[in-house]
Give the backbone structure.
Amino acid sequence: MTYGISRNEVTQVNGSYVGQLNPYMQRDGYPPFEPERVLNLTGDLWIGKVQKFLETIESGQDEGYIQAVTATSIISHGVDLDDLNFLVFRGMPHTVSEYIQVMSRVGRRDGVPAIVVNVYNPNRERDSSYFESHSKFLDFRSILIRNIPTTRFSRQALERTTPGLVLQYVNYEFPYLDVWQKTTVDGLLAEIRADPATFVDAVRRSLGIPTAPAGDGMLVRRQSETVEDLIGNIRSELQRRPHHPREERTAKARLDALNSLRDTDVAIPIFSPGSLGNRVEEDMDE
């Protein structure tokens, strides 16, 4: 069984059994995988097909029918099959509880050991974080309710923190700048235009990229160049036209800089139909 965190990912893995593994199976003298015997169980699958899979395995009358299974979280609960003994994680589940639940699907028969293999996705930053701390994660998995690997070098973290680092730089390391230059859209834009490389270097220093530990090397190399791109994005945001005449002209408001780490979530405004009249219902219909 192969578990993936997204439907597209497990579908790709499902096709790989026949398209990529069969040449190795045939070379080593094993029966090739047949498309109709490699099931793909996802949330949009007709429930009857899932039930048929369970009944086929549980009956034991046609053991050769199913050769492999690819699945999403649909199999993390209620799949209690004694015949499953090899599991591959394609990417890390979003929660520790999900990880433990899926891992418990194999090795359920007494005396028959199970093998669990983690295949991390190198293009997914959270997987890179798990990979670099894999042993520690397994050591503490039983006491973790939800483990969110956070690294200051991930792109999402940089996108949210770089505006604040830029404002911190001009406010605390440029004592000769006046308030207009430090706080307004036009003032900050002029400073970045004059010497963008200085801002790039300042953000890298604030993040500790030049002195990052060797364990973070993969992410550091990937994201060091990202800082330059984000400074360019900040410059573009500062020089765009206001969305409306009353738009605030402070640099902090334009860049949506964080006030604290609690601001990492994006708030969604919700209005009741009573407060806005029928317009809300019309928008929902559209």
